[in-house]
C-alpha cells in the first residue's frame, strides 16, 4: 500500500547533511527538507494512483490500520520525515484497535495499534570501547572469537579479515549466499564464511570506512537516505559513554542532573486517567509499583507485569534518584523534562477528538519551558525528554489524525528525545530499549538471572510469538508462521491473535526454552519482543535493520552478529531463504558465543532497574542512557 506523496524539491547538497545536526535549525520543516527531501524525491510517483486509492479506501473503510508496507519505498503520505520514515523504514504504525482483549503487556497484540515491539542493540566501535567490557561481564567468556565482544577493536578487527565486498560492484540483485561465497572464495575459514553470509560489508566511499549493508539501494536517492542513516548512527555512537569504571567512584563534578518540577497535569495526572486510557482495557494495574506493574512471582525476583508504554514513569522515578541530581539549575548540565508525552497521546489514540485536543499538553509544555531560563539559554540543547512510544506517534502529519505534533514543533528540535523507536533521520531522536518485564534491584538479581538462563536447557531451536498481519500483504509474518509450522520439531509458534501472549510468563518461558526467536516487524519496525528475547537469552532473528540495528546505538553493538542473526526480509518474501534451515545450520559454538555475549555483556544494559535500584558491578539501560546523554551534551554544546 505504498502511497508515496512527497514534494519534489531541489536536491540538497550533501554538504547540508554533513552539517552538525545539533546546529539550531530555524524550522523543523526546513530541517526535514534538507535532510530528507532528497531521499524521498525519487520515490515519488513510483506507485500507481490506484494503489493509493485502494489504500485510502482500506484505511477509511476499515478504520483499522494502516499497515505499513514493510518495504522500502512504501509510504503513507506527506512530505516530511514521516514519509521518509515510512518510506524507507517501511512501516507506519497501524491504527488498528486490537481485536482481542488487551490486557497484556506482551508486545504482540497489545495495543496493537502501533508500536508494539522491538528492539535490539547496537554499540559502536568508536562508541565506548569496552562496551560492556569490564563493567558488566561476570561469567567466564566462553568464546575466544573476536565477535564475542573483545572491546574496541572487535568490529574493526573482525571485519578487516573479511574480504571487503562492494555491493556496488555486483549487479543489483542482492548478494545471496551463493554468490557471496564466490566473492569470498579465498576465505577458507568455514567459520568466517558462515558469518559472512549474514550481511554485506561495503566501503563507505566518503570516509573509506567499512559499513554493513542491510539494504541494497535501488537508486541514488535511496542510497543517499541510507547514508544519512549511517551517518546519524555513527554520530550517536560517538556519544555513547560507558561511564565510570567501578573502581573509580562516580564523580558528579560537572554532571548535575536537574529535574523540572512540572505541574502534575503533564505527568502524574495522566497516570490517574488509567481507567480510561484506551476503550478496551484498564491500565491502572500497570501503574502500580512506580509503573513497574504487578510483580510476577513465577518468574522470580525483579519480574513485573510491565506495560510496554510505561517507560516515561519508570525512567522518571529513576531520574529522581540519580546520584548527580541537583536542585540548583545553575549546577546542572542536563535538564530532564518529565512530561509523559506518550501517555498523553495514548489516551487520544482511540477516541474521536479533534487534533487541537491532542496537542493541548504538547503546546503547553513547550510554552511552560519557554518561561524558564535554562531552556532559553541553550535553546533546549541540554534538555531531554523521555517519550515511551514511537517517534511516529509524535509526528502527526496532515493526512492522518494519528498522534500529536509534539516532535514537529520547532522548539522540540534541539532537545534529545529518548524513544523506544526513533526516526532514523532525526539525530536527536535516540532509541533506548523498550522496557521488559525484568527490573532488577541489585547486582545479585542480575547475576542470578544470568546464571539461570545461561544454563537453561533449550528444547526448541526456534520460536515465534506473534500474530499474523492478514491485512498487510507486505508482512512477512505469515511466511514465517508457515515455515515455522511446517517444521514442528524445530519451531514453536505461539499464536498471539487471541490473547495467547497475554501472560508474560507464556512468552518468557517460551523464549527461555528456545535458541532463536523470530522477530519480524509488526505495525512498526521495532518490537518490544526483541528485548524480551534477549533478556531470556534467546538469540533474536532480525529481518529488518530498522527493527534494531538502526535504532539502539547506545545499547546494542554495531556488529549485529555478536547477538543476532540477520535474514533479509526481501529474500524471505521471494522465498529465497528457508529460515528454519538457515538457523539449523548455525553451529553449537556460534549459538553459545552469541548467547554468552547476550547474557553476560548485553543483558544488564538492556533492562531498567527498579526505582530503588543500586548497581555496582553493572550498569543498566538507565545508567548507560544517562551517562551517554551527559557525554552528548559535553560533545555538542
Ligand atoms: C477482557 O478482559 C476482561 C478482564 O480480564 C474480561 O473480564 C473480559 O471478559 C475480557 N473480554 C474479552 C472480550 O475477552
Ligand atoms: C578488565 O578486567 C580485567 C580482569 O578483571 C583486568 O585485567 C583489566 O585490566 C580490566 N580492563 C579494564 C579496561 O578495566
Ligand atoms: C585497538 O587497536 C589499536 C590499534 O591496533 C591498539 O593500539 C589498541 O590497544 C587496541 N585496543 C584494544 C582494546 O585492544
Ligand atoms: C467524530 O466526531 C465528529 C464531531 O463530533 C463527528 O462528526 C464524527 O462523526 C465522529 N466520528 C466518528 C467515527 O465517530
Ligand atoms: C491464530 O489464532 C487465530 C484466532 O484463533 C486464528 O484465526 C489463526 O488462524 C491462528 N493462526 C494460526 C497460524 O494458527
Ligand atoms: C586488529 O588486530 C590486529 C591483530 O590481530 C592488529 O594488528 C590491529 O592493529 C588491530 N586493530 C585494527 C584497527 O586493525
TrEMBL record:
A GO term from the CC aspect? Golgi membrane
- What topology does it adopt in the membrane? Single-pass type II membrane protein
UniProt lists compositionally biased (Basic residues) regions at 1-13
Subcellular location as annotated: Golgi apparatus membrane
What residue ranges are annotated as transmembrane?
Answer: 43-61
Every Exostosin GT47 domain range:
252-576
Mind telling me which Pfam families this protein's record contains? Exostosin_GT47
Keyword annotations for this protein, in alphabetical order, are: Glycosyltransferase, Golgi apparatus, Membrane, Signal-anchor, Transferase, Transmembrane, Transmembrane helix
The biased composition feature labelled Basic and acidic residues covers 14-27
Which InterPro entries does the protein's record reference? Answer: Exostosin, Exostosin_GT47
Principal localization reads Golgi
Region (Disordered) spans which residues? Answer: 1-27
Named from the GO MF annotations, one term is: glycosyltransferase activity
> Would you indicate the residue range of the signal peptide?
none
UniProt family annotation: Belongs to the glycosyltransferase 47 family.
Q: What is this protein called?
A: Exostosin GT47 domain-containing protein
Q: State the species of origin.
A: Thlaspi arvense (Field penny-cress)
